[in-house]
Amino acid sequence: MNSKYDVIVVGGGASGFFTAINAVEKNPNLKVAILERGKEVLTKVRISGGGRCNVTHACFVPNELVKFYPRGEKELRGPFHQFCSGDTIDWFNKHGVELKIEDDGRMFPASDNSQTIIDCFTLACTKLGITILTGHSVQSIFKSEKYWKVDTNNEQFACRKLVLTTGSNPKIWELLTTVGHTIVDAVPSLFTFNIKDVRIKDLMGLSALASVKVKNTKLESSGPLLITHWGMSGPGILKISAWGARILADVNYNFTLQVNWLYEATFEETIEKLKELKLAHSKKVMYKKAPFDLPNRLWENLVLASGIGTSQASNDGTIETKWADLNKNQLLQLANQLTNAEFQVKGKSTFKEEFVTAGGIDLKEINFKTMESKMHSNLYFAGEIVNIDAVTGGFNFQNAWTSAYIVAQSVAE
Q1: Whose C-alpha in 28, 123, 163, 296 is 20 to 30 A from the C-alpha of 42?
Q2: How much is the average pLDDT of 376-391?
Q3: What pLDDT was estimated at residue 319?
Q4: Do the Cβ atoms of 8 and 156 come closer than 8 Å?
Q5: SS3 sequence, the chain?
Q6: Per-residue model confidence (pLDDT) at position 314
């Protein structure tokens, strides 16, 4: 016996709920069910943004917004003209959730609690009569003349329109290959770099505004760099991990990272600055206070790495070298450590719980005006199931809302 629905949404996450709610709001006659394989829905929403849920980003121009997507930049331009960050703010406002903008542009519920978003969605589903079924893992999908048949571990379903919002679920990707879709292999996208190096040892928690580059590639980025227990993180590193997701996977996360701790200062400018400091502070001990906008402990480690002070260390190991004592070679070494320090990266770690992957349904197989499969009518996709991903900052959620909204419009007609 089949349970029949107009629309079945597979995946009880952000895109799934947003699709279902918007579809029924546009067409109250629709009978809609959400199938979720886990015991709970919206688990990723709960933990995102450290439990605060980074709903979107305060970038309101579609052509600017697309630049935050390493995969999907071209394809999202049209969709963002239909539903952008400003529309997201309006939507949540109308549903009783006020959002606030932080200094870096990220937007959160004013409550600072992801539960606010979860409550908003579950309440809307109750009001609209949307069925939510947990513990339903999809085993197969099959298209008959009029219906999509969906088999789960519990029950058989039939629906006129099928929406898949299962994120990076390999099992669903595999099912889609059986109906002729192409899947771009998934690789991690947002991750931190594992680095063991004496220059950053015991400095966890320190950060600096830096430029970073993967040696012998075109990958570069800049922004706050955070030294962690494992190596390096922060917006600058996460950006390069997203744009370089495929390249870095190909080298098995073993590569050389070049760091300019002085952000945009060049080697030549730094040499001149060091020469000026040598003249101006000739009698001062050089390691005590960082002359650049750097944490003192990092400055001290970079000074040591330049071969300065090891022979002139006092009894307790502190460096007593005065600016006047520096020779030409030491100045060159120090300028190099400041503007082009090389670190060996060996491996990666997941960034917090925000596991994002690059990969999914090939973008060429989707109509981005409707988010419908080009291979099968009445089959739709939203969110990270497709080969689209973004840097950190609320952009992955914005893709979820936009694609879900477009699916909702399509299935409501």
Answers
A1: 28
A2: 97
A3: 63
A4: no
A5: CEEEEEEEEECCCHHHHHHHHHHHHHCCCCCEEEECCCCCCCHHHHHHHHHCCCCEECCCCHHHHHHHCCECHHHHHHHHHHCCHHHHHHHHHHCCCCEEECCCCEEEECCCCCHHHHHHHHHHHHHHCCEEECCCCEEEEEECCCCEEEEECCCEEEEEEEEECCCCCHHHHHHHHHCCCCEEEEEECCEEEECCCCCCCCCCCCEEEEEEEECCCCCEEEEEEEECCCEEECHHHHHHHHHCHHHHHHCCCEEEEEEECCCCCCHHHHHHHHHHHHHHCCCCECCCCCCCCCCHHHHHHHHHHCCCCCCCECCCCCECCEHHHCCHHHHHHHHHHHHCEEEEEECEEECCCCCCEEEEECHHHEECCCCEECCCCCEEECHHHECCECCCCCHHHHHHHHHHHHHHHHHHC
A6: 53
Please state the pTM of the whole predicted model.
0.91
Residue 306 main-chain phi, psi, to 5 deg? -85, 5
95-154 pLDDT, tens digit each: 999 999 999 999 999 999 999 999 999 999 999 999 999 999 999 999 999 999 999 999
Q: Token match 């049209």: residue?
A: 78
